[in-house]
Amino acid sequence: MADEIDLKKLEKKAKSMLLSREIPPGKLEAVRSLMKNSRITNRERFTTIIEIIKNCPDKKRDEIPVEKKLKDGPLRKKIALVKKNDETAALAGAPPTPTETSLYIDELIYKYSSLKIFKKRYLVHRNNRLGIGFRKRLIPASKLLKIYRRVGEEQELVLSRMNGILSDILKDETIDDPIVFNYLRVMRKWLRDTPLAKNDTSSIKWMERINFEGEFISYLSNYFSFMKITSEEREKIMSLVELKLRNMDDLKKDEPGIEGGKKADEKGNLEKEKIIHRQISLYRSFLPSSLNEDNAISRMLLENYNINGFSELLLISAETLIFQRPIIPDELFQFFNITPVRVSAEKWDYHENMLKKFGKDPVSRKKREIDRLRIELEPYEAIVKYLKMEDNGKSLVTRGAESQHELIDNRRHEPGRDYSGDFFYFMDGIIHFFKNSYLPILDGSVIFFRDPDRNIHESPLLSHDFIQDQILLLNSILNDMHSFKSNNPALAIKMEEVKKIMSRKFDTMAAAEEFIRAMGTFFYKTAKRLEVIYSFHKTWSFNRLSIPDIKMIRRPLSLEDLKLTDTKTGRPLPFYDCTIKDFYKNNALTKKLLGKMIVGPDTGDGILIQVIAYLYQAAHECQSEHLLAELNERKNIIRKIDDLNR
């Protein structure tokens, strides 16, 4: 007993010196190493600390203002006292550590006496002059063992379905992000063990502080580390877990029965919903966002054992069995080095052979990512294909401008004129060619179609309002074109200067820039509108679906038809199987379209494809910002594919 008293005095002296001395960083680091070293005795630890810091100077204290003068005596200053509960700070910045003494045992047993989950016991030891002594400590009572076994039952309930969830995630081809899977793998390993659950009272009474630390260290570290993950990561875990639970065969909801079976189905669905809700509640109990969070296990502990939550149960256990003194949560976090759980965002935490089986290995993932990028690239590649389409070695817009000037504007036609020297003369031809050649197909004008049986059908291809907003914009552009040329008769902008104007390198060309931008927007948006109906027709043709009613393709296509179209099945274009016999309003340019089909038999040719290509090429000549953004995105995707192929 005398030896134990000497050890207490030695510990107090060491703490007092640590609190009152100015300790250099080098010596402070040595003190910290000694406090962490579990291979030396407490007597050696505190004796060495005293030897290290005994020659360090006392800390300088700021002078405290005089409060008052005593009548018969010197002036008295206020002295700052150290609170008893602040003795853990006496280690002068060293990490909080458990105490090896029995100083706080009575305080702790009094503090938690109402819970009846600890017992005070004495352990016989031989480390004094008499050769025998008794050391006081706290050990778990049978009630605490019961509590942890009850928590263990909840863990088993979570684990009973976690393997199925992990397996479903591996099999899911749509999931390439391994983060949730990796989190659940860590959680699974953690929940497979429970502190004290495998111990009985006969073995517990011989356990010491270091044994309890080994019993709790992994469990405490995982629980509080998961508490520190971000809310986004937590909700990502919960969302995927719930989705996989609802997709399990025995938890999928049944459809309401027929002829008296409805109630039975509803009852079964209610039971399944209860199981799912119970599982989700338990997951949230083991993935809390804060110490005081209300969850299923916390409510169970409060109702049955008067303990205010799962976090409090763990903190109480650490305080009494490991630290053996009062602590605050931050001390536990610092001692166990609690940081947020970190898992790989790239590599799946599983056997390589199984990952290959499910296509989750690096090679399979890379191939799948390349395939995904190639699918993503397809619409951009289609645009490039449109931009490269030619008519007898010339771009469609160049051939269109020539046809407009030659057949319609023959009075102003200058054979062999170089368009590169006058952008607006070129655009004048492009816009008027579109108006005179392609617009009658799109603006709701009547067309005479001949079907395969040589019957004649008199109908517009599209409803009058299908591109009405674009027609109004076109008319505005034509008016602005006339005004612009009238106000600037001598202005000639070269094609190569258009890029500089659109990049705003010419401040004096703001009016021209605005006008060119408006034209580019018109051509681009009209092309996109037509691409939608063309893509629906391609989808329908690819699926080789039949036509439910022939009337469906013998009337104009309306905007309402587009809204009702399923993107997975598509719909055929009106009169797709017909050729154009004549136009209600004919001219020299529309006559060149007679005898042609709106869409060819292989969906790769036809008038509609020409119109879309023409509009994209015109938008490109105007340096449309929308089109250039898509072409830039194409380059980015190609770069990603190239990087993956290296």
Mean pLDDT: 83
Count up the helices: 23
Shape: elongated
Oligomer: single chain
Strand order of the largest sheet: 6-5-7
Q: Would you identify the regions where 5 or more consecutive residues have pLDDT less than 50?
A: 61-93
Structural class label: mainly alpha
The largest sheet is:
3 strands, antiparallel
Helix content: 55-70%
What gap, in angstroms, lies between the N and C termini? 74 Å
- Rg from C-alpha positions? 41 Å
Strand content: 5-15%
Give the SSE order as H and E letters: HHHHEEHHHHHHHHHHHEEHHEEHHHHEHH
Per DSSP E runs of 2 or more residues, the count of β-strands stands at 7
Notes on the protein architecture:
55% of the residues lie in helices and 5% in strands. The strands form three sheets. Strands 6-5-7 form a three-stranded antiparallel sheet, with no helix packed on it. A two-stranded antiparallel ribbon has the order 1-2. Strands 3-4 form a two-stranded antiparallel ribbon. Helix 18 (468-487) packs antiparallel against helix 20 (510-543). A hairpin with a 2-residue loop joins strand 3 and strand 4 (394-395). Mean pLDDT is 83; it is low at 61-93. The protein is elongated. The chain has 646 residues and is mainly alpha-helical.
Short description:
The chain is mainly alpha-helical and 646 residues long.
